[in-house]
Each structure stands twice: as C-alpha cells, then as structure tokens.
Write a structure and sequence with these properties.
InterPro entries: WW_dom, WW_dom_sf. This is WW domain-containing protein. It contains 7 helices and 5 strands; from the N terminus they run H-H-E-E-E-H-H-E-E-H-H-H. 45% of the residues lie in helices and 8% in strands. It is elongated, with a radius of gyration of 40 Å. The chain has a domain of 55 residues. The chain is mostly helical and 221 residues long.
Length: 221
C-alpha cells in the first residue's frame, strides 16, 4: 500500500508543502539512523553466557543491543564505562582462547570444550573453581574433608606424636629459631664456626689413638 499524506501525518495545504525547516530535517535524519528490530536478531552465545546481536541485512555482529536507546545522556560516564567493560573483557578472553586452539591445531569453534585451553588463555580466577568428591559415592565432599594424604606415613606419625607431645608448639619453636638464625646471619652477627688449630688436630688424633688402645686392652692381658 502506498503511504498517503494522511497516513504519514503530512499536510496537503500549499503552505505546508513548502521546504521543511531545519528542525524537521534533523528529526527526520535522527529517525532514519535508528536501527529497526526486523533486521537485528539476538543470538545466545554459550561460550560467553550472554547474547550477541546479528544484522541479517548488513551481516554485522555486535555485543551492544542496537535496539535499546542510548542512555549515555541520562547516566554518568562511570556507569557506561562499567557496562562496556565486561563485554570487552569477555571478547579478549574468547580471542585468546581461539588463538590457543589454532596454535594447537584445534577447531576454534570447539575451543571452549577443552579446559586446558581455557586455563592457558588467561581466564580470570573467578571463572575457575575446585571441588572434592567421594570416590565411592560420587557425592561432593567438604573442602576440609579428609583426603588420601590423611593416611600417609607423615600424617599418621604426626597424629601419634600429638597424642603425647605438643607437636605444633615444637614446630613453631623450631621455625622461630631458624628464622632468628637466618636474620642474625643476614645482619652479620651470626655465630661463625671456629676452625680448629693445629694443636686441636693433634689432640683429637691422640684421643682417637688412646680410645682405640682402650678398646683392645683386654686382648693384651
């Protein structure tokens, strides 16, 4: 159907058919620059856990919703910066993930399925987690639950010693003494080992000879 002047809201009077004013031209150009919802499609990206937008006419893709009106005039600059930050971060991590996949000869579209690629692409630590589970039941276990090291020789000896002695206090005491010795040596005030003199060596040799004679004295009686 052809658009009639009445349907478009235009006046048919000669005065109104004259050239439009500057304000009318600005309004018309602003409406023409707005994207239409028919050409844009929202597509879910499981790798990024968010939607991206695809234009079926121009073949353009973007992370920012082009249909949603801009709110930069209503919000402070800090809020717009914080909104664009996560998209940029996710895009850079995905690019690094694909680069690692290509370097190892893996299809980039399947890179998100390999956890080793995700760990080598610099993904933030809040995207990674560890958990314990029971090998027999398969149920998740507490973080502070027992693991196979609980039955190691060191742990068993430690538990046995803790029954009779305060092993923790002894370990702290040894650690404190070692730390004090290291600090004293660093400051040049540590105890330097005295080298034996020639007289000391002769005395040690004579003591060793007399000790050997004493051990074999019963053979000469």
């Amino acid at each position: 159907t052809e658009a009639t002047p009445e349907s478009t809201g235009e006046s048919t009077s000669p005065e109104a058919s004259a050239e439009p004013s500057d304000t009318d031209q600005d309004t018309t150009s602003a409406h023409a620059s707005l994207p239409t919802a028919g050409s844009w499609q929202a597509i879910w990206s499981p790798q990024h856990n968010t939607y991206y937008f695809y234009n079926s006419e121009t073949k353009e893709t973007t992370w920012i919703n082009p249909i949603q009106p801009a709110t930069s005039e209503l919000e402070p600059p800090s809020s717009s910066t914080s909104q664009s930050g996560p998209s940029t971060t996710i895009d850079s991590h995905y690019a690094a993930l694909q680069a690692n996949a290509v370097a190892q000869g893996i299809d980039p579209s399947l890179a998100h399925l390999d956890p080793s690629l995700a760990s080598s692409s610099g993904v933030p630590s809040n995207f990674m987690y560890t958990a314990k589970f029971n090998a027999r039941t398969g149920a998740f276990a507490k973080v502070d639950s027992r693991d196979p090291t609980h039955l190691s020789e060191y742990e068993r000896a430690k538990r046995m010693s803790e029954f009779y002695f305060d092993v923790g206090a002894w370990e702290r005491d040894v650690e404190a003494r070692n730390r004090a010795e290291v600090e004293a040596e660093a400051e040049g005030e540590g105890k330097k080992r005295k080298r034996p003199t020639k007289k000391d060596l002769e005395r040690f040799k004579e003591q060793k000879r007399l000790k050997k004679i004493a051990k074999t004295a019963w053979l000469r009686t």
